[in-house]
Amino acid sequence: MDDALEDFRRDTRAWLEENCPPEMRKPMRSEKDICWGGRKFTFASDAQKQWLDVMAERGWTVPDWPSEYGGGGLSPAETKVLKQEMAALGCRVPLQSFGISMLGPALLKYGTEEQKQEHLPKIARGEIRWCQGYSEPNAGSDLASLATSAEDKGDHYLVNGQKVWTSYADEADWIFCLTRTDTSQKQGGITFLLFDMESDGVSTRPIRLISGASPFCETFFEDVKVPKNQVLGEVNDGWSVAKYLLGHEREMISGMGGRAQGLTLSDYALNKLGADEQGRLDDSVLRARIAMHEVRSHAFAAMSERFIDQLKAGKIHSAQPSMMKYYGTELNKDRHELLMAAGGSDALEWESEASGGGKAARAWLRTKANSIEGGTSEIQLNIVAKRILELPEG
Amino acid sequence: MPLFHDEDQETLANTVGPFMADRAPVSHLRSLRDADDPAGFSRDLWREFGQMGFTGVLVDEADGGLGLGHVEAGIVLEEIGRNLTPSPFIGTAVGAVEALRLADRGLKETWLPGIVAGETVAALALDEAARHRPQSVALKAERQGNGFRLTGAKQFAPFRHEADLLLVSARTAGDASDEEGVTLFALPRSHPGITVKAERLADSSFAARIELDGVDVDGSTVVGEVDDGRSVLNRVLSAVRTGASAELVGVAGGASAMTLDYIKQRKQFGRIIGSYQALQHRAAHLYAEMEVARAATLKAQQSLDAGSETAERDASVAKAMAGMASSLAVREAVQMHGGIGMTDEYDVGFFMKRQRVLAELYGDADFHADRLARMEGY
Prior knowledge:
A: alpha+beta, Butyryl-CoA Dehydrogenase, subunit A, domain 2, four-stranded antiparallel β-sheet, 43% helix, B: alpha+beta, Butyryl-Coa Dehydrogenase, subunit A, domain 1, Butyryl-CoA Dehydrogenase, subunit A, domain 3, 3 domains
């Protein structure tokens, strides 16, 4: 073993033990315990704010980003150690956001120095919360057919149009947004813009989902002025940035199929159904289905570990995130089907106190979007078939 | 340790791959089968494995081997799988070597040099029924002076009819299903009282049904401690299950490579059939399953090499996942080839047969999913 890395592990553990508030070492009880940051965010507790502050101070909200942009400047191996040690102590993720998982990597790759200085530290400290303006009413799976226009007005663009499925647009401070700057070509006429959601002409409307929750919005733009230095990448080359960023989004969504924290599927089922005299789950067919699922779940956890290791080492096919996104989301949907089966009629209750306000059913319904958002499963399979397997176009 | 091959391991893969494709491609299996070869594998090739260092991959350098780990053994096995090379590699270079690692000096000196040289072939004789139930051992070993008298039967022992060394699990105390009271024996082939009936299997390899009718063996044939064979057996089983997973990953890789080639050139209705989305989605789904199986297998190999406490669980996850993914691979292979996939003249059917045998060997996906559930307490 590498001595320096073992020293780092020891120091990291000691630091976490000293600095992570006990409250932040308990499993999250609900989505409300997630820290998203941003101007409009209300902390659930003092401990949540304290944990964010000490981690941000050290650059460990984004441990592998360069330290000049608010990151921790850690190597891939050190980042892995930090995650392992956080997991070992049960430390919550101090901050999660689309800025960290999606925009940040794109800014690091495509941003000007000025853009990096301006935006990355605010993402790292949880000061600005970003949302993603990609899909439109007529541009879903066929994203590149988007029509939201950005008209060149000399020193700025004038943006008009509509986005849909904008996650948490009503709680976000800034948006990264795909716009059309050239109608003569499809992919080659898209420009990637960054702008403040408080700009004149921006409005949002939440969409109510089958789960009863409203994590998504419709977002409208009417004569929104965006200064020209807020283009990320080249004009008319926004599709490259978008694809790069979608890869990171797929990584994030695919992570949801991994081994979930807290109560495992089998513990939940044992709780609900009990065990026979040999200690086996007292429903042999459901037990078999759960066991088969758990084989895949463990195997996919190994796949996720391998994926991250390969990604950090630059040893990965650029379309591999599509495979991860496909597999992870399908696995997560399957897991929630099994949770519903184990819960029986208890899991169907929508409002009762015992059901935590329909927690199981709402979570189950929410997972149905996993294989639609960020590119449907069918789109991911198309990408794998064409780019990895090199099967011919139809 | 990152979950991908390091440079040395990549170099090994780049040696083993071309070697296997050159010396023992699928046509090698076909010619052995067509000649009705009584051994079912080539002793000459086995000696070449020895010269290349493959058979001693897991043997300590002090004992003349390469002193490498299960990741490296898996690299050899994946190429064996991809080329459907008939070989006693798993039972000998993985199973027997793993057992001998835990044996005393005498047994090591008796058997390791021959294995390293590619002269000795070993077979594991663990199963007593059609379904893999290694925890249930009825074959009796009764104390007889300094030694034991063995009575009972085993089945599904690959290449036993050719084996110089036989590793047999036997009951030295307690009842057939007891966890304790099992002892592992390393027996030479020449022992009187052992009846071997070689059965050709669907993939044209051989497995033996073995009967031991009061076979007297010396106490020096015991591997590890008397009555405590379970700990040795569990180590050996984790090793061969992980090894079989690697071979299955290779079989799946070989079958799907053939299939992708085929659907990229076969035309129907004036179109390359691989341009149809109906096939593209299935091929892409299969790719995902195979990648996940590959990751699970590498995880199990690394866990064994690191002596991790999750090694047994990881081996079961790998064997189950590799079993499911490779099963899908060979079924899709035959289906996507259409009629030609059903012909003996075409190689793809060999992959289906080999997969079926390997999937059963040391426990299928159902067995390992059940085992995982027991380990996790439900």
